[in-house]
User: Which sequence fits this backbone?
């Protein structure tokens, strides 16, 4: 049977905390503010306002919100240019990702895809760095991923599915939809999320992706 490995993006392939730190420092400097605890609190408030207003994180709206907080007349286009610099993204991919994806891509009958949530263009920018190992026909990005998990899984009836995600709720739902799916829980540390007690036990828990190629081969 063919195999499909579907990866989440944030906190699975992409270190979102590191990206925030790198980018928000640049934003603070651009609008004449110090990057300190007070500014970080404002960025979190701006993120919440953005998600509440749009139902998702969207960089341009976030930047407008930050500028409003500080009455800054900095052009949003200038901030967006700083925000979307390639180096911000390349240095925020976890160190183990490139080798792991390369090794998985060498496994016979294996396809690598994405199942993630967020603003589509922004998320695609994050995975641009690893696009050589991804199959673009298998990149699935939604504002509400939980609402789409069933539809995506249905596309892979003829595949053995490996789902790699940092959110147990996603893995638990996938397992309920199809019991033979391999659920791999990434437990990289996240500074923003409070631990939630969940009874669901995934098939595998990983702190890095180093062990994943062997697991995919084994099963």
Assistant:
């Amino acid at each position: 049977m063919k195999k499909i490995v579907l990866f989440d993006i944030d906190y699975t392939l992409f270190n979102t905390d590191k990206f925030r730190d790198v980018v928000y420092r640049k934003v603070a400097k651009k609008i004449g503010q110090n990057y300190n605890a007070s500014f970080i609190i404002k960025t979190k408030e701006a993120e919440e306002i953005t998600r509440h207003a749009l139902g998702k994180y969207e960089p341009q709206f976030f930047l407008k919100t930050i500028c409003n907080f500080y009455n800054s007349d900095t052009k949003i286009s200038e901030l967006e240019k700083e925000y979307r610099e390639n180096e911000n993204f390349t240095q925020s991919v976890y160190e183990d990702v490139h080798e792991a994806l390369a090794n998985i891509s060498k496994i016979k009958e294996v396809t690598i895809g994405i199942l993630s949530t967020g603003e589509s263009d922004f998320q695609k920018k994050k995975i641009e760095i690893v696009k050589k190992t991804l199959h673009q026909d298998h990149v699935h990005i939604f504002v509400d991923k939980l609402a789409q998990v069933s539809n995506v899984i249905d596309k892979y009836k003829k595949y053995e599915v490996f789902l790699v995600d940092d959110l147990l709720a996603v893995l638990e739902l996938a397992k309920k939809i199809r019991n033979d799916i391999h659920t791999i829980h990434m437990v990289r540390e996240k500074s923003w999320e409070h631990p939630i007690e969940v009874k669901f036990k995934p098939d595998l828990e990983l702190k890095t992706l180093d062990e994943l190629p062997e697991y995919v081969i084994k099963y």
